[in-house]
Design goal:
Keywords: Membrane, Transmembrane, Transmembrane helix. The protein is an all-alpha fold. Helices cover 80% and strands 0% of the residues.
């Protein structure tokens, strides 16, 4: 390795190739040679590059750490409200689970991005009015419109989190893509925190069992619930202050799983045909189909939003294009099943909600597929895929707002 370095010291391209082929050996050999190289600017550059000491991890400003601590305690307190005030826990969380997380995260980004008082006031008013509305709905857990409102409420609030994340700049599509990347990173970080928390929980309960103490109920009621409420806040803090921890993991996971999901989806569609399952009459199977559709669409979006090198990887673009085409087929099947059920048994809140969501995803998939095909044939730039994704994000949240606020009124709270 030493001889190769000496031979190519004036050839930066070949030197870079040697480094990438075997980084540990290159570093060891170069450091041994460096004292012999004298005053050579290229050698000085490589020495600094190879021996740069990583700076200490940055844990935010003191004010930010205090904010996260107070916000985590507030989230934990909100999660304990049913117990403190003897409320129906199932109904409380069904209505208010989103309010434990979204307002606090929105406040964090509003504070961090120094939103104007006017914008902060608008955000506060939206959250307050939404909170009043969802808790004013009749307490009927069997009501379809009530359940739909609770399910679509986070989609509505998600838009205002994105508004705060982007610093109030509504028209900046790059901020919207950054928001998608943040969501992907947060999912990864949350999974890591939950894994660490689960391991800690198992060890703690096991250790106390050894001395005859049964702490499961206490630990779950106070540590686990409060910890779950704080995880999104802590995860957000880490993703914003330690981007190097996960910003490469999210696109890596998405890119690794894209071909796997593509094969799985094709096999699943073929198996569905031979299984004899009737998508048009089996309501649960149709629901599973739509959940699958949402998951695959999220994978496509995070794959595009989470990487900047995709434009140089035609194979990955091809996989995403094929995945979008197969997902479009899945969407078409699900949409035809919904239309069949409406034609046979009439319109219901659930069918209307699924129909609207499927039509929206169909339009989005068509546009994304066209842009991916353009990038694949090099007729358009991959950035247009990102713009297409960004354009549709507010539309999803608007649809969430329609289902949350208008469906109960349109269908008489049924």
């Amino acid at each position: 390795m030493r001889e190769e370095i000496l031979l190519n010291l004036d050839n930066p391209r070949q030197l870079e190739k040697l480094y990438r082929d075997n980084k540990p050996s290159f570093k060891s050999a170069f450091n041994a040679l460096y004292p012999q190289l004298g005053s050579n600017s290229l050698a000085d550059f490589w020495y600094q590059r190879l021996n740069f000491d990583q700076e200490d991890l940055y844990w935010g400003t003191p004010g930010e750490r205090v904010f996260v601590l107070v916000a985590s305690l507030l989230a934990a307190l909100l999660a304990k409200l049913p117990e403190l005030f003897s409320l129906n826990a199932e109904l409380f969380f069904q209505r208010n689970a989103a309010f434990i997380v979204f307002p606090i995260l929105t406040a964090y980004f509003a504070w961090k991005n120094r939103l104007s008082l006017k914008n902060m006031g608008i955000l506060a008013a939206v959250f307050l009015l939404t909170l009043v509305f969802i808790n004013a709905l009749p307490q009927n857990q069997t009501s379809d419109t009530f359940v739909l409102s609770c399910i679509h409420l986070p989609i509505w609030l998600w838009a205002f989190l994105g508004f705060a994340f982007g610093g109030g700049k509504l028209k900046n599509w790059e901020n919207r893509l950054g928001f998608l990347r943040y969501n992907g990173d947060l999912v990864v970080m949350t999974a890591l925190l939950l894994l660490a928390g689960g391991l800690t929980t198992a060890i703690t309960i096991g250790l106390f069992k050894l001395i005859g103490w049964q702490i499961e109920k206490f630990y779950f009621n106070y540590v686990v619930i409060c910890g779950l409420a704080a995880v999104p806040i802590v995860g957000t803090f880490l993703t914003q202050n330690q981007p190097g921890l996960v910003n490469k993991i999210s696109p890596l996971i998405a890119n690794l799983f894209s071909p796997v999901v593509l094969v799985m989806l094709v096999v699943y569609l073929a198996a569905t045909v031979f299984s004899g399952k009737d998508l048009y009459h089996d309501r649960e199977f149709l629901l599973l189909f739509n959940v699958l559709l949402i998951g695959v669409m999220a994978l496509i979006f995070f794959s595009v939003a989470g990487t900047s090198s995709l434009s140089k990887n035609p194979a990955q673009i091809l996989i995403l294009f094929l995945l979008s085409a197969v997902t479009l087929l899945v969407n078409g099947i699900a949409l035809s099943a919904v239309l069949f059920r409406i034609a046979e048994w009439g319109i219901t809140p659930n069918r209307a909600a699924v129909l609207g969501g499927n039509l929206l995803m169909l339009a989005h998939l068509i546009f994304v597929g066209i842009r991916l095909f353009g990038a694949l044939t090099r007729k358009t730039d991959l950035s247009l895929v990102g713009k297409t994704m960004a354009v549709f994000l507010p539309i999803y949240s608007l649809w969430g707002g329609v289902v949350t606020f208008l469906f109960p009124l349109f269908f008489g709270f049924k």
